[in-house]
Structures are given as structure tokens and as C-alpha cells.
Amino acid sequence: MPKGTFIEYDLLESAAYRQLTATARDVFHRFLKKRQLKKRKGSKKNEWIVANNGEIIFPYSEAEKMEISRATFARCLDSLIECGFIDIEHSGGGGPGKDVSLYGLSERWRKHGTPEFEKRVRPKDTRQGEALERYHREKKR
Question: Taking 80 as the threshold, does the pLDDT of residue 7 lie above it?
């Protein structure tokens, strides 16, 4: 398979995609770049599945390397979840070498703006005690 990122026309033309900010689109494109496509077994057509769906890792530190602040990255994640492009499969605890968040690509965007659309939001950060203190210490460095 040639290198590149495939994006469907109906996704690009969707109202959900058009309402994303430019930065949220950049973040979404990075999510698409991280997916591992493989051909569906037994498929006679070119049907592809995302082999690592629900296991995609995109830490805040990587967003910062893209010159996206933590606050902006959080807003991008919120938009992508609210519009139906990604879902958080596991909320990580944060910190280097610690529990990471795992993301999955979603098709919920297809029903965005309809009564059938399934709304989701990013879970609130519930870190307390030592984990929250460690986060603030690392942020000050």
C-alpha cells in the first residue's frame, strides 16, 4: 500500500468537518496518519479496517511538538469527540511513562446534526492528590 493518508470525500464535505477549526483538522489528520489500515479478511473488494482502532496514542507532548498548546489540544479533542470523529477508549493518568489515553476513530460524524447522532464528551480530568501535584510540578519545569 502506498504511503499517504486517505480521506473520504463525504467526510471532507460533511458539516461536522467544516465546523472544525484549522487546528482541530490538523489534529484529526494526525489521528488519521496514526491509523494502521489492513485489508478485511475474505474481502473481494478493497475493504479496509483500522487494525489499531481504540489503541491510537496521541499524547499532549506530541501536540506540543506540533506547536499546539495543551489548552488548544484539549479544545481540539473536545471538538473531535463532540463532532463524532474520535472517541476516547481509555482515559490515561498522564505523565511520562505513565498510563496513556487510547483513542479510536469513529463514524459517528456521519449522523452529526441528525436526531440519531450519539453525543459524547471528553471525560473530565479527575486526577487528585499526588497525580495532580505531579502534573503541576512537571508543568512548571
Answer: yes
